């Protein structure tokens, strides 16, 4: 294999082919530090042409490639397996914003661009790129596209798929498909763009994209509301959609235990209510008219919700700092759970109307099978996506708890299936859920996926062992 790596060095420069274990370490371990794979090397191309050359070399030598962006994924999709056969292809050096078109409301970006950088570039141009994730300071747009990432603004703007108009992709044969079209209408055959988005690098390597921009809102307001049950939150969602329409941008559900964890591990973050309530919803309005108009909508919504007894209390942010403080409570939940210790994460979706029933019934099932477990339930209620996480009972050792992960997963995922949902809402399948999905997808659907993989990547060199 030294011949392969020597040819890679000739193609992209020796400094960009990492083989020293210390240099490779950060590329081989997943974000949660639960798994470390092995690789022949890490390749760091700086252009689409260099990616294509490397892929052609991988074909000639039959070397698998694991594409990687910011390596912030949670399902082992962007790290190699333990065999040591593959190379990691990092797109981090491909981080150029190629073009901003404020008339067409588009931006052309390379796959290695950090999401936060894109947000800032859009703001400099007086526009908004609405994709927002907890990892936005380190995740890349290529990874967002490869996993069809969601985030907190899906309710209004949709997943990453809805925010992309065109792609540039290096195929498994090392050819370049230039589909960087800034068109909102293009009915000229199969939609190849949607085929690659969400494919987790198993069908080709996304190297650039044309993404949608939007006008900056004139006002953005945040409120935290408290209520007895998730069912009350669903009724609040219906009311907010009725009264605020498309101005409703975010609608995040959080249980009391979530905020207890944040307060325990980040005591500098003060909870805004003098007493605890069972459930909370963090909602955000983005208004294109004026701050006065936005305030009127929010005041009307809070008033109606109190009158209809959908909520029992509310705090409205009166400044950007206060709004940031409320969002920080939500964004620190995963960090607080990590500080609490090992936990079992689930990224699921169910029809929005059934979320209350799902939480109630699945909580009861889990307590029946695993008494004392503590549920850390939060997520994007407005689009049906729950982060339905399980922490061990007090006094149970982390290793003993993690040994029950497969049993816990089956209870949670079987329940998701009964409710007509999905076991992966926005994180993807990767290697973590690759086998699990077989229990819930039909053989027809799985065979269609296998046929696509075989047709596009017959040598199985693109991120093998992931998704299917």
Automatic annotation (TrEMBL):
Keywords: FAD, Flavoprotein. One of its GO terms (biological process) is respiratory electron transport chain. Its cofactor is FAD. One of its GO terms (molecular function) is FAD binding. Pfam families: FAD-oxidase_C, FAD_binding_4. It comes from the Bacteria. Residues 35-216 form the FAD-binding PCMH-type domain. Belongs to the FAD-binding oxidoreductase/transferase type 4 family. This is FAD-binding oxidoreductase. It comes from Noviherbaspirillum galbum.
């Amino acid at each position: 294999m030294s011949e392969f790596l020597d040819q890679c060095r000739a193609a992209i420069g020796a400094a960009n082919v990492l083989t020293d274990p210390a240099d490779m370490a950060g590329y081989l371990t997943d974000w949660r530090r639960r798994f470390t794979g092995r690789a022949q090397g890490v390749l760091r191309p700086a252009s689409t042409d260099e990616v294509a050359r490397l892929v052609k070399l991988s074909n000639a030598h039959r070397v698998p490639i694991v594409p990687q962006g910011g390596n912030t994924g949670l399902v082992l999709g962007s790290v190699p397996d333990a065999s040591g056969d593959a190379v990691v292809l990092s797109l981090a050096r491909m981080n150029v914003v190629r073009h901003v078109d404020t008339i067409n409301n588009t931006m052309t970006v390379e796959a290695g661009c950090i999401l936060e950088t894109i947000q800032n570039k859009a703001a400099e141009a007086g526009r908004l790129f609405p994709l927002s994730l907890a990892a936005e300071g380190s995740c890349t747009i290529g990874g967002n596209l490869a996993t069809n990432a969601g985030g907190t603004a899906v309710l209004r703007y949709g997943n990453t798929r809805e925010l992309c108009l065109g792609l540039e992709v290096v195929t498994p044969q090392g050819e370049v498909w230039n589909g960087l079209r800034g068109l909102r209408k293009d009915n000229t055959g199969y939609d190849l763009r949607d085929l690659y988005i969400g494919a987790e690098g198993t069908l080709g390597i996304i190297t650039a994209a044309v993404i949608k921009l939007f006008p900056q809102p004139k006002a953005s307001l945040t409120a935290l509301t408290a209520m007895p049950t998730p069912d009350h939150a669903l009724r609040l969602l219906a009311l907010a959609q009725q009264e605020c329409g498309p101005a409703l941008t975010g609608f995040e559900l959080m249980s009391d235990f979530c905020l207890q964890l944040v307060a325990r591990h980040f005591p500098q973050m003060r909870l805004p209510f003098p007493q605890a309530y069972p459930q909370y919803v963090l909602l955000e309005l983005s208004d294109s008219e004026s701050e006065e108009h936005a305030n009127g909508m929010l005041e009307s919504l809070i008033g109606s919700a109190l009158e209809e007894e959908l909520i029992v209390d509310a705090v409205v942010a009166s400044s950007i700092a206060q709004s940031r403080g409320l969002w920080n409570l939500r964004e620190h939940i995963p960090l607080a759970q990590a500080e609490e210790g090992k936990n079992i994460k689930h990224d699921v979706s169910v029809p929005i109307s059934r979320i209350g029933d799902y939480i109630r019934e699945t909580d009861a099932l889990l307590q029946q099978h695993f008494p004392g477990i503590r549920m850390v339930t939060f997520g994007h209620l407005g689009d049906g996506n729950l982060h339905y996480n399980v922490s061990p009972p007090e006094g149970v050792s982390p290793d003993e708890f993690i040994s029950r992960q497969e049993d816990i997963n089956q209870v949670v995922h079987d329940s998701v299936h009964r409710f007509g949902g999905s076991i992966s809402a926005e994180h993807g399948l990767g290697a973590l859920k690759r086998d699990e999905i077989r229990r819930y997808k039909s053989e027809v659907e799985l065979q269609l996926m296998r046929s696509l993989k075989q047709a596009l990547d017959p040598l199985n060199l693109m991120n093998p062992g992931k998704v299917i």
